Amino acid sequence: MTARRDVSPAVVERLAAICLALPEAREEDAWTGVRWRVGSKTFAHAVAIDGSWPPAYARAAGTDGPVTVLTFHAAGEDLAALASMGPPFFKPVWAETIVGMVLDDADWGEVEELISDSYRAVAPRRLANRVE
Q: Could you tell me which residues are beta bridge partners of residue 100?
């Protein structure tokens, strides 16, 4: 079996700095990549795509890789705008409110805003209200 590419430690560190600053957020290994959760809900998931693996992510992002992608929740006008924007954004088919973004050459200020919005979309109200 071929070894699978992991999300680079530098990207995980940068995402963790954003995600773990949110109330009661935690980091864990996912079936592939790394995810950040609040309660039982995932609000950010980083996955490395390489050689068309994992196939669902490669198809959704429209790339064989190697790239790193982040998936997150969006709602309303933001969801519609991001889903139709095109690269670096993409719309996976497996969840209605999930959007993806290729992180290569990302604007990290925008990434922080998207993660905060995603967190607020899934966190219990008492926690979401603590995030500006």
A: 71, 90
